[in-house]
Specification:
Layout lengths: L6 E5 L4 E9 H8 L4 H8 L3 H11 L8 H6 L19 E4 L3 E2 L18 H13 L1
Antiparallel strand pairs: 1-2, 2-3, 2-4
Helix pairs in contact: 2-3
């Protein structure tokens, strides 16, 4: 497995620290095939869907569904080889989304989570109450 070290930079205008990680296609390919995408996504503080999109954009194959389960069960699994890069494609992959020291609050459910109900759902519940 390839080790990766984050490089940090601070935005002077916002006072936030953004972590940027730079990889070659080969390094990122090895990383994608080293552990499940959901685990990598947590490491990068992005979603697994975003990670899949990065792979697709740079032509990096990722393990198909069930690949990790088969590997864990001891079955023989094939790793898709890394294809050649498309002409004009970037040779470096930069992931810079995880921010530290954010000012925006963490999402919390609204205190009155039942404040909005669909009109038909409310009517149905009221109708049931009056019939009983």
């Amino acid at each position: 497995m390839t080790d990766y070290l984050p490089t940090s930079r601070q935005r002077a205008d916002e006072g936030r620290i953004t972590v940027a990680r730079v990889f070659t296609r080969e390094q990122f390919y090895e990383l994608v095939w080293s552990k499940p995408m959901t685990h990598l996504a947590k490491d990068f503080a992005i979603s697994d869907v975003a990670l899949h999109k990065i792979c697709r954009k740079h032509g990096i194959p990722n393990p198909p569904l069930g690949w990790w389960a088969k590997k864990a069960a001891g079955k023989k699994v094939k790793q898709t080889p890394l294809p050649e890069a498309k002409p004009g494609a970037a040779d470096r992959i930069t992931i810079s989304d995880g921010e530290f020291g954010r000012d925006r609050p963490i999402w919390q459910p609204h205190a009155n989570r039942h404040a909005y109900r669909h009109p038909k759902a409310t009517t149905t519940k009221l109708h049931r109450r009056t019939r009983s």
